[in-house]
Amino acid sequence: MDYQLGERYKKLVLLHSNDMHGDFMAQSVDESLVGGVAMLSGYINKVKEEEKNTLYCIAGDMFRGSVIDSEYRGLSTIEIMNMLSPDVVTLGNHEVDYGVAHLLFLEKCAVFPIINANLHIKTNNARLFDPYLIKEIDGMKILFIGVLTEQVIAQTKNDGLVGTFVNISEAAYEIGRICNAHNALDIDFTVLLTHIGFEEDKKLAAMLDPAWGVDVIIGGHSHTFISEPAVVNGIPIVQAGTGTDLIGRFDVIVDTDTNSIADFKWQSIPINAGNCPVDEDIAKLIGSYKSRTDAKYGRVVTRFNRKLTHPCRTQETELGDLIADALKFSLGLDIMLLGSGSIRTEEMGPIVMLGNLTESFPYDDAVFMVKVTGAQLKQMVKHTVRDEVWAGAHSEFYQYSEGLHMVYSREDREFREFTFDGQEVDDNRLFSVGLQLYHYNNMENSFGIKPEELLKNAPRRTVSTSSRQVIEEYLSEHQHLDITAGDRLVIL
Description:
The protein is built from 15 helices and 29 strands. It is globular, with a radius of gyration of 24 Å.
């Protein structure tokens, strides 16, 4: 970056995180501490001391994933984030997990700005949040715009009064409106803070008119780890994986005459004891929360014979099989279709404490029982393994309870085998199928079928108001469990 810094060329450092999911605590890896908000804050503070024009932003999903977050329904997260002091945050889909009304309450507790350009009340189109933020630093005006589309905010379907963009075309139009309205303010640099997934970010970038002046897209949602930015339509697109193990860093030379990037360098910085000092004040705050949650969540629920794993959400896993079975047998279902993304840790056990269970399965949804014909079941499962899933789309995948055996050929896009309890599934047979509330509310997107089609078979029935309580009770009654995954859904 051989530019003479002055009135025209100015350096801007953008630090960014996404999908932190309550990842507050450092972890010991190879006898070294990695991640955690205390070291993350230490690194941010260090950079701000070294570089005067430094801004830190978060591209959604501060919430969900830890006992500390779940126990205090996000209030603890807001307090910790207040100490972390981001310059701007955009909403992710998990920000609405505790309900839109609770989110608006949490926003009032935040001392940092939260932006979103498109969440609105359907009756009068009133926005729920400020759509953008203009941050002034060293004579530069930096425009941040927050974007979230309906595909990734399915949770709001629990609230019929809240709406959002339908697709990225509408998002691009809204971005154009905001950029056009503020170009007259001589915006020097424009950042899109998105939470729609890396592949969708690329599609969005391709739709943006260069005259709007969008300089970079900082995204989230797909938990994508990158070694270098993707550049689409001249716009660098980045994401910083998930959690607090690393932070993204843009070092940008801004040409304030042309309001564009003269040069930039992006890198992914590991958050570890080697290059990050500890923010002791945040460490003490997190420690106080942990001591309180440890007292409640430190009891043992069960013991497995060995550690059970969930290494990937797009394959059958040991934890997925176990939890699907727990719900099936406890609730008297033929089949449990468990959202694979409901399981938030890659492993659990062999000793399982209540805190481990809560972090691994934080979504305490109700469970509905619906009646599904064999033909409908095949249609639903086929939708969950469609081509987009393997192309990197952030689509929901499912874990299946004992009894089902399915062999699916990606090449033929057909099932080679589809049996239940060893018998070929009859298209006319009715099965009692369990679905979590979230997945029932998003049935058309998740399974390619409307709820009305299933309601023709029989009314839906609430069989549990708390899926996690069911799982906890099952595990406490069944010690030394073991399970081998791999024969319920085989993908060829």
